[in-house]
Amino acid sequence: MAEPMANVSDELLERFRSISNATVLGQLLRHGYDKVYMLGVESLAKGRRLCGRAVTLQYLPSRPDLASIIATGQHGEGFNETPRWQALETLRKGDVLVADAMGLGKTSTGGDVVFSRILTQDAEGLVTDGGVRDGHKVIRYGYPVFAGGSTPTVGEPNILPYQVNEPIQCGGVLVWPGDIILGDDDGIVVLPSHLAAEIVDECEHHDEVEQAVIEYTQRERVSPKHFYPFNEETERIYQEWKARQSS
Asked: Residue 185: how many CA atoms within 13 Å on its side-chain side?
């Protein structure tokens, strides 16, 4: 099966760092993508912005035969050669680890020791609809952490890591490897990688127009209702704002 993914350049990724999640979500809705906002996945470290390419990790419910397969499978022998470690070792700068834990927000996908590898790999952060053990310690690493919750539990009795860089769900949203993961205090939006280049100009333009409207309405003490939906007057205000930016 062909994978609907495209390589997202560092330059393109950088442009999305300054675009609001709400704007990206709005543009995706216009393109027919209405299931891109993760449910039950929230920031454990408020104020941290996340933008990066997805490296995906899928968990499955624990069972003895699955545990045996994982411990002796293609990833190598033993607990420390599981798919979770493969995913962590795959991470590079610009990547985000996205873990599908089937929405089990109080079941751990890892803790401060395991997820210290995200820091030493210079990756962008962590997203999971499962739990994070010792979450208060993990957030001290300084990268963004989005999860179903923080938990003291160990995950292995309930879930086991199964495969890496395959399509997954997380928070009820499809995530393909390489999709752009955008996070802020409002949550996580998944931007399909093949749409990134197509909508980036639209997103930047939308944010600029809104900034122009905000500045104008605050300066003139008028209601924003006159400029929504965007109309000719909105465009006039935007063009005046744009001229001031370049002067």
From this structure: 2
pTM above 0.90, yes or no: yes
Q: Phi then psi for 29, rounded to 5 degrees?
A: -60, -40
Every domain of the chain with CATH number 3.50.30.40 lies at 35-191
Q: Which residues of the chain have pLDDT under 50?
A: 1-2, 75-78
How high is the pLDDT of residue 80? 59
Q: Which amino acid is at 166?
A: E
* Residue-level pLDDT at 77: 43
| H or E element that contains 98 | strand 95-100
Give CA 149 to chain center in angstroms. 16
**What is the pLDDT at residue 73?**
58
Contact 203, 22 (CB under 8 A): no
Tokens (6 digits) for 241: 């704002």
Cα 79 to Cα 48: distance, rounded to the nearest angstrom = 32
CATH number assigned to the domain with residue range 35-191, chosen from the 4 options 2.40.160.50, 3.20.20.70, 3.50.30.40, 3.40.50.980: 3.50.30.40
DSSP-derived 3-state class of residue 135: helix
Q: If 0-12 CB within 10 Å is exposed, 13-18 middle and 19+ buried, where does residue 193 land?
A: buried
Give the pLDDT score at 108. Answer: 96
As a whole number of angstroms, the distance between CA 66 and CA 51 comes to 33
